[in-house]
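::Amino acid chain::
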Amino acid sequence: MYLSIIIPTYNRFAQLSLCLRSLASQLIVHSDIEVIIVDDHSDIQIAKDIKALCHQLNFSYISHSKNSGCAQARNTGTIRSKGKWIAFLDDDVQVNENWLNNILLITPQLPKNIIAIEGLVKGSGDGLWDREVQNLQGNSFLSCNYIIRRSALILAGGFDPNFSGPFCEDHELTVRLQKIGEIQFERFISVTHLPRKIQFLNHIRKAPWRMRTLLISEFYFYSKHPNDYYRFRNYSTFKETYKSIFFRHTLNCLRRRGFWRLIRKPHQALILIFTSAIEQICSWIFLPEYLKLINSNKNLPSSKRKLK
């Protein structure tokens, strides 16, 4: 097997369906490729729909017995995969024209020191969240379009499953991969990030979880790689990152979108103001806990095993 394509998913049937159908249209003439969907314990009906779609498209379907996070889901797919190269996609992207052909054209020509490819990621839609996840120039290392030599991924230990949410796990893996070899940016291996549908009450309800998971992930990333952290963030320490979130999170969220985009999307702007304010307040509430961690200079406890 030359290429394994691994896609973790959780409760996103509509987006995943678009992703898989865009992929299936490029697989028609290729046989040495497998597609593995890892369902991270979606709701029962959604899981049934995903499984049926995978059966229809002749893709492999794996289901977790409990929600374990996207890092663990990618490791599960890696363990079951057979490809010499492993391509990671997210369930809310569509592969662009010739995505697969370009992988099959470029990877055989790469020197052995090139162990991974970060592909171009382009946002779509005009919502306030729709351009937040992009990789247009390289050095973003996003796991939604990441192609890695299997041997290098195994040697690096895979994704660290202690990252339970979608924060920092791709950058942390990148640090370990770059100790093994080089990562090349390829704009012709491109995907489009689908527009995000934001529900007001649900987004507000999840704000404390988002902030707590983000801070835990940032601290864990920094504690593992304090000498490399600055290469992926605007700040050189977790303490500086926390300080920025503590004082300027809401302002930064608004500033990134720009005044005229906020004016054009008043409903989304209202959601953004509410949720970012709640997230910033949560960072104040969590401060005593993180001051202890920062002052003790200890890693968060490692509770899960890496890929072997």
In short: The first strand starts at residue 3 and ends at 9.
